[in-house]
Amino acid sequence: MRSGEESSKKPPSARAKIQSKDRDMGAALRTVYQKTVDEKVPPEMLDLLGKLD
């Protein structure tokens, strides 16, 4: 649990910067994930999947 101890020793502004970066990274990951989920499956892939049955 060193990281928790170390982060509590950092000045408040450093913690706020880290939290802000974490939020930004989380938002970016959610955006990429959602775009991937919303992406249509190409017809060629659906044809290939249909051949597996």
Helix content: over 70%
Distance between the terminal alpha carbons, to the nearest Å? 50 Å
Sheet of most strands: none
Order of helices and strands: HHH
Question: pLDDT below 50 for ≥5 consecutive residues: which ranges?
Answer: none
Describe the global form: rod-shaped
Assign the structural class, choosing from mainly alpha, mainly beta, alpha/beta, alpha+beta, or little secondary structure. Answer: mainly alpha
Q: Please state roughly what percent of the residues sit in beta strands, choosing from under 5%, 5-15%, 15-25%, 25-35%, 35-45% or over 45%.
A: under 5%
Average pLDDT works out at 86
Q: What's the tally of helices?
A: 3
Number of strands: 0
- Oligomeric status of the shown chains? single chain
Report the radius of gyration as a whole number of Å. 21 Å
List the keywords.
single chain, 53 residues, mainly alpha, rod-shaped
Layout: helices, strands, pairs:
Layout: H1 2-9, H2 12-38, H3 43-51
Describe this structure in words.
The chain is built from 3 helices and no strands. The protein is mostly helical and 53 residues long. The longest helix is centred in the middle third of the chain and has 27 residues, at 12-38.
In short:
This protein has helices at residues 2-9, 12-38, 43-51. The protein has 53 residues and is mainly alpha-helical.
